[in-house]
Amino acid sequence: MAAIQALALSVLAFTPVAVRADPSPAAGVSLNPAPLERVVGTPPAARSAEAGQDLAILLWLQQVRTPEIVSSSWTLLERNPTAFSRALGVDMVRTTPRLNAALKAFLKPVDGIKDQIKDRVNRPRPFVSHPQIIPCLPLEASASFPSGHSTWYRAASELLADLLPERRSRLLELGRHGGNSRVLCGMHYPSDVEAGQRLGVAAANQLIQSPQWRAFKADPAVQVELDQVRKVPASALPVLVH
Which residues of the chain have a pLDDT value below 50? Predict the structure, then answer.
């Protein structure tokens, strides 16, 4: 018995102790939903002039979109920070891994607010209400207002622009295109995308004012990554949108 007890104690002595991972830089961050819901507003009333204009734009774009437009829209199908690698001129997975991971964490509460508004408004997608609309992206079952891609891409571009103001125009260009591509392919009405843009800007402004974002921005390791981005000369930056 003594030998067994001694063996058990020796095993316990050398059992690795789990080390708690560093918390996400966005841990504890929250958004105030009331002002965000106000800035989003409501979609056009059915059979209103604005609703008719929404549909007319989609039908016109459906006639004029090219294979290049469709291909470009597919590149933005996934809501992933690496889509901004083109705007920054670096591979974000390799060059800015901390930034890449943190953006995903900070944007989670934005998605949560967006989903709440979608569920409350419950606007059907254009191709549901109008069978003549033929999307050029995979169909989605969620509601249409506001556009989730527009919200996510615009919020992400605003956060990145706060870190890298010298890349602001490129970042916002890609941020807007992330939403516009949804109209080009018939997944959303223009008014859905406009609402998403408003939500993205307002939500990003709240995040930028949070202590979590300020601490992340001041992190020396993050500044090292940002310095790597700043080293890329303007002449080496690729064209974003044709």
Answer: 1-20
